[in-house]
Amino acid sequence: MTVVREEVERYRNTTEASDALLQVEERDKWSIAGVSSLRDEEVRIRVLHGGRLASTYAMAEMGELAHDSEVTYTPTSPGSASEILDNGLLHHLKETTRAEMDCQVCYGLFLEPLTTACGHTFCRQCVHRVLDHSNICPICRRVLSLPPATNTQQSPSNILLTKLLNGLCPEAMAERAEMAKAEYAGLGELDTPLFICTLGYPSVTTFLHVFEPRYRLMIRRAIESGGRKFGVLLPNPRREPQGDLGPVPFYQYGTLLDIVDMRFLRDGRSYIQTVGVSRFRVLKHGTLDGYAVGKIERVDDISVAQEEALEAAEMSALLRTRNLSAQDHFDAPPHHVSTQDTSREPAAHDVDSMSTQDLFAAGVAFVKKKRHETAAWLSSQVLLAYGEMPEDPVLFPWWFAAVLPLHEELKYKLIESRSVRERLKICVQLLDQVAREEQRYATFFGCLH
Ligand SMILES: [Zn+2]
Ligand SMILES: [Zn+2]
């Protein structure tokens, strides 16, 4: 308001007294409506100069412009320049007030202006970006008392400012909104945000603790863009080469996760609950505001027919080698039985010789056995989080990998695989590994006693 007053003042001083003299007729509403007014037929006629806008402002300033009065403007001389003057002043006012509408974080027009308790206003986005790093107002350094997830319900936008902005500069506002949208779009084809932290599995819940500022921003953008999806990749600390990508800091196959729930902590950290949608391979990657983004390609399994053909081929090949080795055994001289003591180690499954159904059955049997033994990794809390064991062999490996207490890198092969049979084999190999490790622990603690 101060800026507006100053501008009108300056304008009045530069306007010639003869410019656009207007006869302003102000009528009381009641008399117009034909109802006799207590103030009689009140018509005030005044001659003001400077155009309609400046004279209206002058009347308001004098306190003589009633809210419900009807005002008529008549130029005192024909060919008055009042319209030109009005446009000139309006343009001027827009220019000067616009500068006051700039956010001090992004230096753009306020987009969804949010006024903090300290009285400063920023774009909603900008407040979020500030909160990612600290909880202090960037202008006055007072502590910002906004909740970390400042959604529109918890802290609504400044209504007056929003109206002013939309009224004063609708085109610039539309452009500003467009720019913000383009920001989400990121780097063109690198349109998938990537969270390099762990493995995720299709159809299985993954819980993530988001505390790094760059990932807070990434998750918020994923939610605000409406997609609610992002890719999760396993870190590659030893920089093992990843196909065409080379020695990148992540493994190239990952899982697309869909955010289903999130909880913000007071300090800005958040816990998000996601569910795996599909697997993908990273084709290209880049960085956007500190986090990775990529162009991804969906990874799907081979068809059921191909799956069956694969199993049949493996089984028949196995049969042939068995027949051959039986022949060898028959011809060969009797040989020593291995003296190595393997009794302590549980026998590993020969996964290649097992049918897909048997592989699945072995996995299910292992889970049932461990549950019976009340293994910690199958506690009720774990089952509450990941759900009960799926009865579908397609879904089983994902669930199994999620609950199995083994290092993520050992489970990575599952993500790359394009066959259910292949994944069931990996699961059986993994369960053998768990059994061996448990045996070693038991032996170790047995020695201590
Ligand atoms: Zn801003
Ligand atoms: Zn402040």
Which features would summarize this protein structure in a list?
449 residues; alpha+beta; Herpes Virus-1; Archaeosine Trna-guanine Transglycosylase, Chain: A, domain 4; 5-stranded mixed β-barrel; 3-stranded antiparallel sheet; 14 helices; 11 strands; 18% strand; elongated; binds zinc ion
Characterization of this structure:
- Residues 329-349 are annotated as: Disordered.
- InterPro entries: Lon_prtase_N (IPR003111), Lon_prtase_N_sf (IPR046336), PUA-like_sf (IPR015947), Znf_RING (IPR001841), Znf_RING/FYVE/PHD (IPR013083), Znf_RING_CS (IPR017907).
- Residues 181-435 form the Lon N-terminal domain.
- This is LON peptidase N-terminal domain and RING finger protein.
- It comes from Lachnellula suecica.
- The protein is of the alpha+beta class and 449 residues long.
- It folds into 4 domains: 2-98, no CATH class; 113-184, Herpes Virus-1 (2-Layer Sandwich); 189-299, LON domain-like (Archaeosine Trna-guanine Transglycosylase, Chain: A, domain 4, Roll), CATH 2.30.130; 304-326 and 346-448, no CATH class.
- It has 14 helices and 11 strands.
- Strand 9 (253-264) and strand 10 (270-288) form a beta hairpin.
- Helix 12 runs parallel beside helix 14.
- Mean pLDDT is 83; it is low at 30-38 and 335-342.
- Bound molecules: zinc ion (2 copies).
- One zinc ion is lined by residues 103, 105-106, 108, 122-123, 126.
